[in-house]
Amino acid sequence: MWEFVSERWQDIAYRAFQHTSLVVQALVLATVIAIAVALLVTRVKALEPVANAISAIGLTIPSFALLGLLLPLVGIGTLPSVLLVTFYATLPILRNAVVGLMGVSPLLMESAQGMGMSAFGRFLRVQLPLAWPVIMAGLRTSAQMSMGVAAIAAYALGPGLGQYIFTGLTQIGGQNAVPYAVVGTVGIIILALLLDAILLLVSRLTTSKGIRA
Amino acid sequence: MSTASTEAAEPRDARDTGEARSADRSVSGAEIVFDDVTKTYPGQTAPAVDSLSLTIPAGQVVMFVGPSGCGKTTSLKMINRLHEPTSGTITIDGEDIRSKDETELRRHIGYVIQGGSLFPHMSVRDNIALVPRLLGWDKKRVASRVDELLDLVGLSPERYRDRYPRELSGGQQQRVGVARGLAADPPVLLMDEPFGAVDPITRQRLQDELMSIQEELQKTIVCVTHDIDEAIKLGDRILILQEGANIAQYDTPANILAAPANSFVEDFVGSDSSLKQLALMRVSELDLHDAVTARVGDDGAEAARAARSARQGGVIVLDDKRRPAAWVGLREAERVGTLRASSRDLEVVDHRATLNDALDSMLAASHGGVLVTGRRDEFLGVLEFDTVTEHIQTLTREARTGESDEYAITPSEDELQDSSVEDDTGSGSKHGSEDDADPSRGEQA
Amino acid sequence: MSEQNDPSSAEAGAEQPSHGLGLLVGLPLICAAILGGWTLWRQTAELDDIESRQLAWGTILDLTREHIVLTLVTTAIVLVTAVPLGILLTRPAFRRLSTPVVGFANAGQAAPVIGIIVLLAMWIGFGFRAAVISLGLYAFLPVLRNTIVGLQQVDPTLVEAARGMGMSGFDVLRRVELPLAIPIIMAGVRTALVLVVGTASFATFINAGGLGALIVTGITLFRNSVLISGALIIAVLALLIDWAGRVFERIATPKGLS
Fold it and tell me: Could you say which of C160, C168, C256 has the minimum Cβ distance to residue B103?
């Protein structure tokens, strides 16, 4: 086992980097999309049940099934991975962003308006900071989930550590089958916990002291 | 208040004159005795209750009051063994409460807490029926008991028994809570801030109703409150506690108001004790005026004629259970033809209401008086403003002397370990103060 | 962690009960539309040998049945283990253990489910058993966490009222705590069902059957028709299971609470 790791150290590190990079980029994309949609939902209240239904249905569709639907459209490789991970990453953030932004007291928004803040200023300086802890919580859920979805995307030759798991599966019976699967699985667990710790730290640092739990 | 002091040993109902009453009214309550009871919570050095001894006479309402953290709630919860004393004994009707299984004991003690604490997933019927069912009553008996209790607390069984708690107002929930506490007809009823969660008007009404019920049932009621006005109004006697459940004074409301034992009690009761005396006087102590009454559906003109000949300015319309339904002027009565129930709320007080409450209601009414009802909201008569003012003048002319009975405990100033009062504990009448500090709340004992 | 639908609605830490009728009516309609469209295509399309073998009605029904059995067996096992453990962890004697246990289970969710399935199959052998255990491990947390949260959110004054009225500890649990916790526990069960029905697609990798086979065949044999058919049927099945969970949630919620 140890030998397996030391021999492939560079490859493992590279794949871990790929895995993380895929997840982080998808998360950034997902956050922007989710906040934009949530903002729209807070402006047009009629959209709220629609957004909630999309979140609920989207999260119900198995990732393997969605991957199957994507492949005929975009082929195999990195692109389906990015689309798949981004799709699932968006939903928890969207759900929390809607809850968070809607949760800001209308009184506060009105007093901000009364003080002469522009619509954009009100969003950026009042609404977003107050909703931020909730949005960050959604982001952490998304990050955990994305780590696993990225592993599944590897089945369609996506980048990252997931390929080690599938290599282990195809080499079953061979002497390296178990090390491949273990390194893939444990590697993803470590990456997920590290990313979660980092996000927790970011969440604390970017949340106003006044509303920190 | 000469009457009060000479009859201090009696429950105040005994002075009641509002209704013909039999002298041999049966007391269904049981005596509760605390003997040197101490409770120390694990991990704390100072006892929450420090050697408390007192006797709660059968059939009386005893109010436990005191500042937050004085141990009043702990003392109450030791009676049904939600908390176990560290030392000392508590007896109910002479029997040590530890001689019984604790669930068995609790099934025979009513328990009513703030807001009613109804189980939201059970209908009104199921909430009330809970203890009778635990006791294995048969279905028929349970069903009739539920209806009887709903009637008792003034809720129509047909209308309310199948409702769920969230379909009731706060006051209605609290009524059901009282009904639930009385379900198995326990001799003892424990109440923990029972009316703390409702608005002042509803609270006053609930208090009046509780007094009516108590007049009928004669339970031993132990009630914790932080509201000294509530204690004065409801209590046959009041236990004022200081930190560690040290007794500052235990006596009738009249004696406590007339002769506070020490500066702690004085501060707690407040300086306006002469105004508070208004809360000691009941509507039932005054003469009510007769009024011309009619039934819903009667002819208005005829009723108006009867009223004119009796020199009355209005007609009181009653429903089929003799409850006031409307109070109409003569002209209006003539105009409407057939008398109907009023859609507006009537200004009605229970005959157990205090003069305080009655004056309140009069100010809101447009008749210069207020309708008084007795048991189960039956109409008794009209209380007029002049009667009240005359009564007050008479009483203030009379001298007050405090004379305590065998149950009273009146420590002198220097007997108290610490009679100095902290700033915030003085105003006992403030509402909505924090709960009793109770570190073990919610833990299984 | 992997897959869809992490149950944590983040701040609350537990999946909240579903509300509203929209999805309750909408989901079956969506599913019926997709299935109807697919059936129409299946009856009219010209299929080659491989396709017609893979998409034979018998084959599809067999795979679907395997998929459903796997899902229900796993969920049932999770239910009878996680709920009692959750109850135990909220009893006074074990209450202090609930935080570390939930923390551990949370961290365990960081494991990619596909990795767990593969490793477990390597350890105890391919087949149904390995699939049930690995999927069960994965679905355990939401049910455990929701059971604990559901019981913890029961108003302590209600519990005290119940005890003060003379109910035994077991009575309080059965007649007050569990009925009040049911909506949240059921939300956890629905989450578990959805997790399992989705992850059961991977059971085919360890020869434990299920509809995942269609996707794998479709990809390896370059038959988009098979691939899309498999994906659609799995998606519809997941939506229907979610719907059934919602219906069940509504039925199980005591009347006074809904």
Answer: C168
